[in-house]
Amino acid sequence: MDTDIRSFKRSVLLRALEKFEVVAIKPKASIEETIAEIFDSSVDAVVADFRLSEEDPTVHYNGSDVIKGVIEVRAEFPVFILTSFEDDAIDKGFDVNIVYEKKDIQESPKFFEKVITQIKKHIAKIENAEIRIKELIIKRQTEPLTLSEEEELIELDALVEKSLDKRNAIPPSLKANTNAERLNTLIEKTDALINEIKSKKNE
Question: Against a cut of 0.85, is the pTM above it?
């Protein structure tokens, strides 16, 4: 385990074109503790060794379990699996784009370029969503949003919320209060108008 961490840090220094800090998190007895430490460390991406349980007999889960746990909490978070046997991780059903052989990071900067690119894309997506949310909220303070703008606001809010912790994300259907209220008002006015027309016919 320590050897792999030292090797990874050395590869960052020698191969990565953009240097970044490596936060080494050793697996705890329970996967919940490990995932909690990952999020407490405020890292921008997670690189997990596929065969954690082989490195430490007290660990009863592997790197793919850690990655699953991370993306169950944070949607689209940048994650990567390192393995000596690429097919093992792919057989577990993981996207081939996040599985890399350990020898690759010792021979080329491509893996580190991928990590940096995914981090930048993830951060930019959230930042752009937050900017657009602010624009729509400011507009709503002076005039009603269109239906498509309301839907966009709800979708963007859900995106940001799920990027933080999708376990506690509120379903978009429960957020559509503004349009529901507007529709209810319209129905009430329509009912009142129909009743008025009927009463006039009966006079």
Answer: no
